[in-house]
Amino acid sequence: MASHVPEGYAPDRMRKYMAHFTSEAHLDGAKLGSTTDEERQARQREYTAVAKDYYDLVSPLYEQGWGQRFHYTPMAPGLSIDASMTEYEHEFARLAGLRAGMRVLDIGCGIGGPARTLARRVGCHIVGLNNNAWHIERGTALTKEAGLEELVSFVQGDLMKLPFDDATFDAVYVFEALCYAPDPAAAYGEVWRMLKPGGLFALTDWAMTDKFVEGNLHHRDVRNWIEFGNGITRMPRVAEMRAALAETGFEVLHEENMAYRSHPGPWYFGPAGDVRWATTWGDFWKVFTMSPAFLFVVNGVYRLLVLVGILPREVLALMDTMWYCCRSVAMGGQLDIFTPMYLFATRKPGADGDGKGKNKDKAGKGKGKGKGKGKGKENSG
């Protein structure tokens, strides 16, 4: 592993994260899938610790395997995963209404990949917030290397208790982070408090679509595996997000499942390990390392090394966690019961009118101008 991975990384951090889900030393997929509502509610009360321990565990692996931007992307024709991410972030900035000179909050900023892209593209001043100290340290270092420290800064804090005065920001955005909130309505309320009147709020986030059926045991298994594999205590549903935004008072300007823009390959070809859609040798290797064949061989090697005492047994649990991290989201995508990029672009009424924006895409009939299939409202939610 790279030099920024600490000593004792796998055993220490694996044990801390697993303790939120099981008291056993190994992972049992059947038990994870059949997690009860009571067990999920108990974890929701510890959402900060669960997310922190998860990202302490996986962040170095994310950066090595996926890059500095910890989010998925709709694939653009002929482009690599990294180039598709850049195009997606640029389109997100347009839909979010970000402009030069704005003071912007990035909630759940990771190590600052999207913040650096957007600051460079738009010229806005971005404050990245995260509850993980390692993310703040790493993001600050990478931002300094990029020469963007005058536009991008970082603050450690809780997304449910934002450490800023009321009406501090012109805009707030989120890339795949408010799914970690135990209560979406309360999280959106904190965003509302942060925004100036007329301020903009855009999020692209993980959610279960309306094709998810709570009574379907396989659907529940997949959701619970996604939660475990990604440090989430309570996955929201699209309808719940929509209702919570309305309850908070936000005016929805645009709504779209951005997963449907992925063309020609599906957004989940990476975590599915499907190398057929790779357009560069770099992507081929990145995706191949998540393929069933590669993971089968690596698991076999690691099991042998654990058996002879060279590696601690926690390494096997780490490998299993990464399997759930990748394969569960691919399963959810294939079933169309899950999306990691459901987008809402909204506005806090006030300042420049009555909050009835002229260019509003009606909730349920978003008229996205993006390329690809599935424009507008989520086909399944």
From TrEMBL:
Gene Ontology CC annotation, any one: endoplasmic reticulum
Bias (Basic and acidic residues) ranges: 349-364
Chain intervals for the UniProt region annotation (Disordered): 348-381
Keyword Transferase: yes
InterPro entries in the cross-refs: Erg6_SMT_methyltransf, Methyltransf_11, MeTrfase_SMT, SAM-dependent_MTases_sf, Sterol_MeTrfase_C
GO-annotated biological processes: methylation; sterol biosynthetic process
Enzyme class: transferase
Biased composition (Basic residues): 365-374
Domain SAM-dependent methyltransferase Erg6/SMT-type: 54-349
Pathway given in the UniProt record: Steroid metabolism; ergosterol biosynthesis
UniProt entry tagged with the keyword Lipid biosynthesis: yes
GO MF annotation list: sterol 24-C-methyltransferase activity
Similarity-based family: Belongs to the class I-like SAM-binding methyltransferase superfamily. Erg6/SMT family.
Protein name: Sterol 24-C-methyltransferase
Organism the protein comes from: Lasiosphaeria ovina
